[in-house]
Each structure stands twice: as C-alpha cells, then as structure tokens.
Amino acid sequence: MGRKPAITRKAVVTAAVEIIDRDGMEGFSLERVASALGVRAPSLYNHFADRTEILAEVARAIVLETPRIPDPAPGQWREWLIAESLEFRNTLLRHPNLVPVVFAWFPESLLHKLYAQYSDLLGAHGVPASHHLFLLEAAHRMTVGSAVCTATGRPALIELPSGGAAESRERTGSVARDADELLFVDMLRAFLSGVDLGDPD
C-alpha cells in the first residue's frame, strides 16, 4: 500500500484560495479542496472543524498578504493611512472572488491587533487618542466597501473632477490602476481632511 499524502492547514487554505480565485464561491466545496490535495474530504476534519473554519482561515490569509507601509514622516500620518488603506484594497482586489469571503469572515482578532499598532502610531504623531478608533474604523469600512463595490462590478455613480487623477497619483506616490481606485483615494483623503482634530494641520 502506498503512503497516504500528508496535508497541512496551510495547504488546505492555499487550495481553497486557488479554487475560489478561479471558480468563485460556487466552485468551492470540501470535496474539491480535498481532491486538489489528493485526499478524501473527511481528512480535512483532522485540521479544521468545518467549512466555516476553512473560510475564516482563508480570509485571514488574504488579509495577511497586505504589505506594510513604512511609518510616516512627521505630519504625514494622513497620507500614510491612505497608503495603508490602498495597499489593503489592492490586496483584496487581487482576489475579487474572495472579497465577499473576507467581508463575511473577517478575522476580528487580527483587526484588533492592527488597530492597536496603528493607534500607537497615530498617538506618536499627535493624533488625540479619542479619535484613533474612529479614524481607523472609518478608513477600514471605506476600504472594504470600496473593494466590495469594485469586485462585484457595482459602478460609481459620479465621475472624478478634472485634475483629480493627476493629483491622486502624485499624492499616493504610485500610478493608480483605475477610476474606482482614484475615487477611493480622493474620498478617503476628503474624509481625513475634514476630520476636526483640534490641531493646526
């Protein structure tokens, strides 16, 4: 008898991501994941309690793909938060079929950890502690909401004002991929500029 192929949690998640990336959620099943790994579906229960736990780990894996932006220079925390949000949005949109999965099974414990790190950074840049959670939660919701709209093909109902594209590209330090991305950056910048922190900048 041949030796049964060994599988790991990481291998299961990788197979699930590949299947959903390619075929969408309608193509996802425990049987297909197991087949991709050369095992039978019941073997997956040695690593995961159920389908939901696999999807939760898939969502976590996608979130963790997001690269970190270097800490901001003095007075540049707003542009840093925009850049961080844009990197997360881009990560999500590299996996458009998985955006609803991340939305539904977002790893809350990871989000709390990131909020704590980002709160420390905002505090170091003089942002009042009373505003940290508001700013981070608003940016997070705007980011995920924008990714959901783009991934599901929901078109924007407004056009960017003339000159908006060039300004957004210059301020983010990268060439934006499409009008939805430019709109997202401009919306987030407008929000952050309008928040009254009681400071001169």
TrEMBL record:
- DNA-binding region boundaries: 29-48
Q: Which UniProt keywords apply?
A: DNA-binding, Transcription, Transcription regulation
Instruction: Specify the HTH tetR-type domain's residue ranges.
Output: 6-66
What InterPro entries does the annotation carry?
Answer: Homeodomain-like_sf, HTH-type_TetR-like_transc_reg, HTH_TetR, Tet_transcr_reg_TetR, Tet_transcr_reg_TetR-rel_C_sf
- Keyword Transcription regulation present in the record's keywords: the answer is yes
Does the keyword Transcription belong to this entry? yes
Q: Which Pfam families match?
A: TetR_N (PF00440)
Q: What is this protein called?
A: TetR/AcrR family transcriptional regulator
Instruction: Please give the organism.
Output: Rhodococcus gannanensis
